[in-house]
Amino acid sequence: MASSFVETNNNAVALLQQEKYDEAGRMLRSAVDALHVLSRTLDSGDCSIEGTDSKPSSSCSCTTRFHFTPLPPVRHQEGAFIYHRAACISEASVRTDGERSRLSAIILYNMALFYHIRGLEHGRMEPLHISIKMYEMARGLLCSIVEEEESLEEEDATGVYYLAMAILNNLGQLFNELSEYEAVTECFEQVRCILEQTRDCKQDYESQEVFTLNATVWEIPAHASAA
Asked: How far does CA 219 lie from the centroid of its chain?
């Protein structure tokens, strides 16, 4: 039962890849519920959770690992600006508040992405506003991780920063959709700051290129007036 939310998250991502959005949305909501239940039962002693690609750890020293997996292109005129990759969890730990915050941020990001895509493709504003709230919740959790864990290992820090850039990138697109251009500028300024911090990272050049291109486009003042 302890690993149920990891499996549920990853199954939801597989459904997103197949464009089975309604089923994916239900699964992601189940993953959030399962994580809440798990957080309330931490005194059970099961501090390590193995996902689809992990191995058991007797020392409880594992941390949360995830990777981005591409989804089908978004059918919208500005779909190219969306970072449409969902986060699959390969290994997870609930030893600390930071680890639980990271897991929550990952699942909230996936749920926000689900609402983001659905709102754009169906031309509905309500899912877009829900998406913004969930991206913001996920971003808040990541900020708390960085503030509380001063000495993040390089791999851990990179994962947090890449997830943060995905969230900020997509928030920027959403704020543009709502004609909130100052918020758009703020999001992509933060993306540029994180890109500067991770410029020597060799983990994910493709994602770096996406974020760099989008941040560069949004540096051009004409884009806002033309949007």
From this structure: 23
**DSSP symbol at 49:** E
Q: How far apart are CA 219 and CA 66, in angstroms?
A: 30
Q: 210, exposed or middle or buried, with CB in 10 Å at 0-12, 13-18, 19+? A: buried
Given a contact cutoff of 8 angstroms between Cβ atoms, the answer to whether 224 and 184 are in contact is yes
37-73 pLDDT tens trace? 766 665 455 544 444 343 444 334 447 788 999 999 8
116 touches 82 (CB < 8 A): yes
**Are the beta carbons of 102 and 6 closer than 8 angstroms?**
no
Over the chain (227 residues), what is each successive 10-residue block's mean pLDDT? 74 96 92 74 51 40 78 79 92 73 91 94 93 96 74 65 94 92 93 84 72 79 46
Q: Measuring CA to CA, which residue among 179, 184, 112 is closest to residue 141?
A: 112
If we measure between CA atoms, which residue out of 50, 62, 88 comes closest to residue 153? Answer: 62
Read off the pTM: 0.83
Cβ atoms of 95 and 60 closer than 8 Å: yes
